[in-house]
Amino acid sequence: MTSTTDKDRVVIFDTTLRDGEQCPGATMNLDEKLAVAELLDTMGVDIIEAGFPIASNGDFEAVSEIAKRTKRATIAGLARAIPADIARAGEAVRHAQRGRIHTFVSTSPIHLAHQMRKTEDEVVEIILKTVAQARDLVEDVEWSAMDATRTGIDYLCRCVESAIRMGATTINLPDTVGYATPEEYRDMFRQVRERVPNADKAIFSTHCHNDIGLAVANSLAGVEGGARQIECTINGIGERAGNAALEEVVMALRTRGDVMPYDTGIDSTMLTRASKLVSHATNFPVQYNKAIVGRNAFAHESGIHQDGMLKHANTYEIMTPASVGLTKTSLVMGKHSGRAAFRSKLTELGLSLSDNQLQDVFERFKDLADRKKHVYDEDIEALVDENLATAHDRIKLVSLSVIAGTRGPQRATMKIDMDSRTFTEEADGNGPVDAVFNCIKAMVPHDAVLELYQVHAVTEGTDAQAEVSVRLKAGERSMTARGADPDTLVASAKAYLSALNKLSATSVRLHAQHAATV
Question: Does residue 165 contact residue 158 with C-beta atoms inside 8 Å?
Fold first, then answer.
């Protein structure tokens, strides 16, 4: 096998834990971040941007803990071009085998005038001082020109030259607002690399947002322009319309090596597993037609397509499901399956649980197998997702019964456990779901507003588990959560309570009220 040279090696910089988590409602707890970071490291991601250490004590703790545990990848902490930010980032990554400080400052005229309120000369002075400070703390410093694609090329070159002169080893030219076209983005990299005299001393990086759907195309165009690092996220999550999707970037380079002869070093067979883990951790479902990892990415319904697939898979598939870690759904698990078989199935699905988690999920699997004729892989994944998502919840559903029908009124009776105390409540509603949610509001008063309520079946059949997604907004915080159960109303209650738990974990105060204590 031919070895990869620096010229054709593209470094993958994953910012799921930083930019991805900035997606409204996508906040992850420490355990979830650690699990995502471990998988990213195992699959071959080169740099993991673990967070924004100055943002909160929680972010600092997450970056520090990931830095201590990660075995291979470089761990980066984000910092504004402010001395306190840079010092905090340096402290967070100091235990990493390879630590990086990623500092940034705006360079576009619109940002300088309305956000920074500084002159071009003042910003250059900031770059000189803060990059030098970062380089005194770590050897690996990345500097980003925020809103680079709306920055004049002459001034952009001046800023890049200053950053490299002070020790920046990576230069990121982001399309911060998803404004560029591929041709523009490619030409920007070519011009900067040709015009900046010390450009050969740094690796250039892309960071593209997807506001007009060009994030992946722009990232690949940046590589054509000389960039050798791509910043991306699992499932493309991130601010506004999201970031370039890691799985799309990796598989585009792998599938079209004839026109893009670059290697990433990513184990692509772990992409589906990573997608599911991040989807579970953030409670953001993956759209069915999402490239590479969507449920329909390798599904064929058209008769013409099916005929072609039966004759030769390459007629309609340019990559194999196995190449992204996708396994076919099987029906071999049932109520007679033992613990060893269940553990083997989890391994096959790329799921890893502690002994205590395994015991809990296995018991729930047995309960589900008693209620369903067939237990699909998706059913097992839903059980694992829910177990991991609710392991540390303050509020848990104990029981629920609902009276519904045409005569009305619809009425729900619910029992919950909150902080080791049990509460019960009854409530009417305009329909059974409304009655269930009114029960919760009576026991746990809050000001959160329901922004999303969505139901879909995990598998086919009338006995399929329902998976319910709920998004609650309290003030400026939005939290999305999911619940699964063969009973749609029970799944609804679980999802609503899970969202409340997430809000509670981010300082929204929740108190159980006057409901009768049992």
Answer: no
- CATH (residue range 392-517): 3.30.160.270
Phi, psi of 399 (to 5 degrees): -155, 160
511: tokens are 């108190």
Q: At what angle do helices 355-371 and 339-348 cross, to 10 degrees?
A: 100
Q: E strands within 387-518?
A: 395-403, 410-418, 421-429, 449-457, 466-474, 477-485, 516-517
Q: Pull the structure tokens for residue 317.
A: 């598939």
Phi, psi of 385 (to 5 degrees): -55, -45
Q: Token pair for residue 111? A: 């940002």
Residue boundaries of the structural domains of the chain? 11-282, 296-326, 327-389, 392-517
Fold of 11-282: TIM Barrel (3.20.20)
Q: Which residues contact 125 (CB under 8 A, 6 or more apart)?
A: none
Angle at 388 between CA 384 and CA 390, to 5 degrees: 115
Q: Give 416's pLDDT tier (boundaries 50, 70, 90).
A: very high
Contact between 471 and 451 under an 8 Å Cβ cutoff? The reply is yes
- Does residue 338 or residue 97 have the better pLDDT? 97
Separation between Cα atoms, residue 229 and residue 215, nearest integer Å: 14
For 349, the 3-state DSSP assignment is: coil
- How far, in Å, CA of 492 to CA of 436, rounded? 8
Token pair recorded at residue 358: 């395994």
Nearest to 371 by CA among 485, 454, 482: 485
Stated pTM of the model: 0.77
pLDDT band of 385, cuts 50, 70, 90:
confident
The DSSP call for residue 3 is P
- The tens digit of pLDDT for each residue in 457-472 reads 887 777 788 889 898 9
**Could you give the angle at the alpha carbon of 508 between the alpha carbons of 419 and 237, nearest 5°?**
110
The strand pair at 229-232 and 395-403 is best described as: unpaired
pLDDT, tens only, 317-335: 678 888 888 765 554 577 7
pLDDT above 90 coverage of the chain, percent: 60
